[in-house]
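Thread: quick sanity check before group meeting

JM: Hey all, I'm pulling together slides for Thursday and realized we never actually wrote out the predicted structure for the chain we discussed last week. Dropping the sequence here so it's in one place. If anyone has concerns about the input, flag it before I start.
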Amino acid sequence: MSSYPVYEYSMNDVARAGQRLKDIIAWDDYDDEVRRVFAIANSWRDSHVLPMKSIRLSIAHRMRHMKLSGDVVARAKRMSSIRGKLRRHPGKLDQMQDLGGCRAIMDDINCVNAMVAECLQRMPHEVQNHKSYVDNAKSDGYRSHHLIFKFEGDGDRAVYRGRRVELQIRTKLQHSWATAVEVVGQTRLEELKSGKGSAEWLRFFRLMSDEFSFQEGCELDRVAPDRRHRIAEIRECNNALHAMDVLENHRTTTRYIKSYILSGDARVFLIRYDNVNHTVSVEGYSDPSVGALALHHEEMSMEEAGLTENSAVLVDAKEAASIVSAFPNYFGDVSLFLGRLKAICGKVGDAEYELPKQETAPSRPYEVPDLSWFKQRHRRWTEGGKGKKK
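JM (edit): ok, ran it. Output follows.
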């Protein structure tokens, strides 16, 4: 029987822990007081696991009902991301709206629009906020729909009432752009997805976002260059940055290691990403509470060892295959973005291989089988031997 984590401290404890997490904490300072801070923060984050799973299942149900193609997964926010966000933006840990997050990756923009409309009208949880970054992209080119749900729970789920979960709805192409930004940011150790780092790379991704928006029939910003100039500038950026080589290198050097046995009872998956050795491991857990505890140990071990390049994340998904499609940045999968970039730059796309149809010998004409031997033995059994005694 699986269980889900429940918050074990007071709300004042959450507020104080959030203030402490903003500070730079050296491992030498990890005394009992600091360990308590992390225990409180982890307990508060983990109490969002059941609400985010419930919302993921609601989205998956609606996708099936509306016959929309796509994948939907949920994830608990990484502690390193929590601390970074607390430093960048004024706010408190108890007010953070994406400690539990869901991501719906739809096949095309029509599926995205249909899913957004459905969420705004028929979700069992209150929609507290909706921001569209599709027609009005962020300044860096990021495009997606963001909806904040307030979890409504009754009975034994009442303890989770009020937890906020963020749902991101985007197309595969929009998702490929966000993935490429994060992958290059990890490679260069720059926060490109936060608008920080190389101005050249940021410009390149902004242009690619405009081009993807054009290809999907979405509105473009008024400042966007016309397509002819945009294509020319993308090619110039690619040549200057060797963008295709960077993305190709990351895709081929990252190895997906299956360190788990996929079983039907796995409910959550712990992804470990090693940015030094370019390896990824995934481990499934049937009990979400055990998975959350494994995440705590992994994050504390990385903090203790000073492995700031590495990361771990706890994901709720129907199956492991959905994780790869929804979190391709953890698997170095930039294939879709790279393929579109090659097409823009006039390069030959990635070769696709398929098993050719095997040649077969012509079938023999039908022949009526000779069953006389069977009839003879049958007569002997039923007629010849019956009633005869020696």
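AS: nice. The two ends are 71 Å apart (CA to CA). The beta strands are 70-76, 100-106, 126-132, 145-150, 164-171, 255-257, 268-274, 279-285, 311-316.
JM: adding both to the slides.
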